[in-house]
Amino acid sequence: MTSDPAAAPARRQPAGAAVLREDVTAAIREAVVEELAAVGFARMSIEGIARRAGVGKTAVYRRWKSKLHLVLDLVGAFAADGLPVPSTGSLYGDVRALLEVMTHVLRHPVASAVIPDLLVEAARNPEIADAVRGALLDGQRRMAEGIVSEAVARGELPASVTPDHALDLLIGPLYWRQVVVRDAVTGAQLDVLARQVVAGLKAGAGPA
Length: 208
Prior knowledge:
The chain is mostly helical. It folds into 2 domains: 46 residues, Homeodomain-like (Arc Repressor Mutant, subunit A), CATH 1.10.10.60; 126 residues, Tetracycline Repressor, domain 2 (Orthogonal Bundle), CATH 1.10.357.10. Helices cover 69% and strands 0% of the residues. It starts with 21 loop residues before the first helix and ends in a 6-residue tail after the last helix. About 6% of the residues have low confidence.
């Protein structure tokens, strides 16, 4: 019996192991954003996503097992993209720049249409809670860590200030206004909020 690999017939890959086409994956993700903007998370369906993307439902299910997993993946990618750490040379400048970035982020359909529903699902399911926490907080915490560490190095903040406290002051008011109340935030309001955040951070450390 020969052991020569060249003599053995080539093995066929099982159908399930076929490489997923990146252009199809991109089309599905784009369709999800459009579907969310059109109908919201609660009314969104795999059928509607597939129809909008111009693919069959099987193409969607081969990549994600449910619309919730699809949206979690999308939120994770969305949260990680386009969030550079501000570095303006001052605490106020960094805070104001971050607020400007976040106000645009929170106007995105993924944020306005999905995040409130995901938080409801997270309250029922610890696995979803962990996924949502990672998707939404990792990038924001990285930015807060950069802003706080640079401000501490410049002597603008005490070393006891934590990134989590900074995030509470930075993101909380914007999230309430734009996602919960759904009011617009003007540039002048961002200026005021930035000054308030800086004053709060300089007042001392957050809760232990």
